[in-house]
Amino acid sequence: MLGEAVGAALNTEVISCRHIKGGDYHDVFRVELADGRHVFAKTDRAGAADEFMTEAAGLRWLRSAGAVPVPEVLAVNKAEPGFLILEWIDVGRGSNEDDETFGRALARLHTSGAPGFGREDGRPTGHLRLPNEPCGSWPEFFATRRLQPLTRAAADAGALPRKAIAGIDRVAARIDILVGPKEPPARLHGDLWSGNRITDAEGRSWLVNPKAIGGDREFDLAMMRLFGGFSDACFAAYDELFPMADGWRRRLPLYQLAPLIDHAIKSGGHYVGRVEQALLQLR
Prior knowledge:
The chain has 10 helices and 9 strands. By secondary structure, it is of the alpha+beta class. It folds into 2 domains: 2-87, Phosphorylase Kinase, domain 1 (2-Layer Sandwich), CATH 3.30.200.20; 96-281, Aminoglycoside phosphotransferase (APH), C-terminal lobe (Aminoglycoside 3'-phosphotransferase, Chain: A, domain 2), CATH 3.90.1200.10. Helix 4 packs antiparallel against helix 5 (162-173), helix 7 crosses helix 9 (248-267) and helix 9 (248-267) packs antiparallel against helix 10 (270-281). The termini are far apart. The model has no long low-confidence stretch (mean pLDDT 94).
């Protein structure tokens, strides 16, 4: 059924459709086409195919900046069977030299800017469907579109102790004094851990699986440091092109708090302790 849908969307015959590893919430495939191409396809597994429309819009927006390689969206469909089809990237290995190139490219992506803080289309992102309606400032967006919805989700799921929930509420209430200097909204990937940056066979870095928003660039950079996978050379190259604002290290636990809460809801375990640790650093 998927093969027929992909063939119809791309106006060609599908030779094979092979399931490959990857995707927490979707099934992913390498599809061979009669015209000789291979494409990447993912299908809905969790009843949220509308997310493909959001992801496609984010990919196109990031790609339009011309700063970092981003796969071309070839087709997207939210009706049954919901799918997203992208150009195929042959995965290879990265290097420190590529890390430097990526750091500079990311700086250019961030400086390409955004219309505001959030998404113009207001579409929610992620498995928690976090809201993205635009806000007038970054502190307002981060408090009302990230910390507060995440806190409610964590409380509803019983994922965090009450003391931690209260601590996150206090952080949200103090957000104006915790954030850094005002900057124009940056064009953000929105979920920039190492698994969402792939390196092709020629050593170029590509961005995939975005939760794209306009926001503070420190949000992307803090996520990059949360789970590792990016070298010092990458950050140094970024800083050469777009120097970090004073005090950015002090703000790391603030911006890492949101993905840590998300992971505590999803996986529990040691992420609960990491949320509590971040809150201690923000006292």
